[in-house]
Every structure is written in structure tokens, then in C-alpha cells.
Design brief:
Length: about 140
């Protein structure tokens, strides 16, 4: 049975350009997602290394969409997976706030697709809440 995309949306207390900077500037990203490294240029690398239970997990990939201030896309693949997934982040203006939508596709090709889709959804919610907290001034720099 096919697994649809993971879609997570959050309203952020900042203008679109500020959200963009928080996504692509390493010194800002390190505050709200310290395990993520992303070089926001076409062909730039993406990497996340994190500890989980008694193991360490790795996901690596490459940026393939950059529309400054609007969209960032990349593919990445967890170590041991046969296939990569694709992620697209899109920022929309909402008055003085912004709405960030994350869509991750390709999960139906992964082993244990349903479980992984739920885990990825929870992971995106977790990281986007940290981004919201950072932009609201609730995370220390």
C-alpha cells in the first residue's frame, strides 16, 4: 500500500526573510537543529547525524532547489536505506508572520514505510517547534 507524503506546517513569528536565514545560515541553524548541516546552494551537501537509543543514525544528501527567501529542496538518504527521500520547504508570508510547509516524499520506497512516515512526521514537528521557539526568542543563542 502506498504511503503518502509527510506534510508538516507551522506558523512562525517572523518575516519570511528571517525564517529563510534561520534555515540556511549555519550559525542560526545550529541553535534550533544542531544535528543538521546544510549548504544551501544547488549541489550543496545535507547531513544529519543523531543518536537514537544505543545507535547513531546518519542521513546525507544534496540540495537541488534553492529559491532564496522562498523554497529549499533536497534529497537525503539514511545510512542503510536503498532509496532517498525528497524534502521541500516552502515559506509563505502571513502578515507579519510566515508559514513554513515541509513536504517529504518517497517514503513508500523505504522498508517499514508506515512506521517511518510516522517517525518522520514526528521528527519534523519536533524540529519545527524548535524553529518556532528560536524565532520567538525562547531558545538561547
Amino acid at each position: 500500500m502506498p504511503v503518502g507524503p509527510v506534510i508538516v506546517r507551522v506558523t512562525l513569528p517572523a518575516a519570511r526573510e528571517t525564517v529563510w536565514q534561520a534555515l540556511v545560515e549555519p550559525q542560526r541553524t545550529a541553535i534550533w537543529w544542531p544535528d543538521l548541516q546544510i549548504d544551501a546552494v544547488i549541489g550543496g551537501g545535507v547531513a544529519e547525524i543523531w543518536a537514537e537509543a544505543d545507535s547513531e543514525r546518519h542521513a546525507t544528501g544534496a540540495v537541488d532547489i534553492v529559491i532564496p527567501g522562498h523554497s529549499l529542496g533536497f534529497n537525503w538518504q539514511e545510512l542503510g536505506d536503498a532509496y532517498a527521500t525528497s524534502v521541500l520547504l516552502v515559506i509563505r508570508t502571513d502578515g507579519e508572520r510566515s508559514i513554513l510547509t515541509v513536504t517529504e516524499t518517497g517514503l513508500d520506497s523505504l522498508e517499514h514505510a508506515n512506521r517511518r512516515a510516522m517517525e518522520y512526521h514526528e521528527g519534523w514537528e519536533y524540529h519545527l517547534e524548535d524553529l518556532r521557539a528560536y524565532l520567538a526568542g525562547e531558545l538561547a543563542e
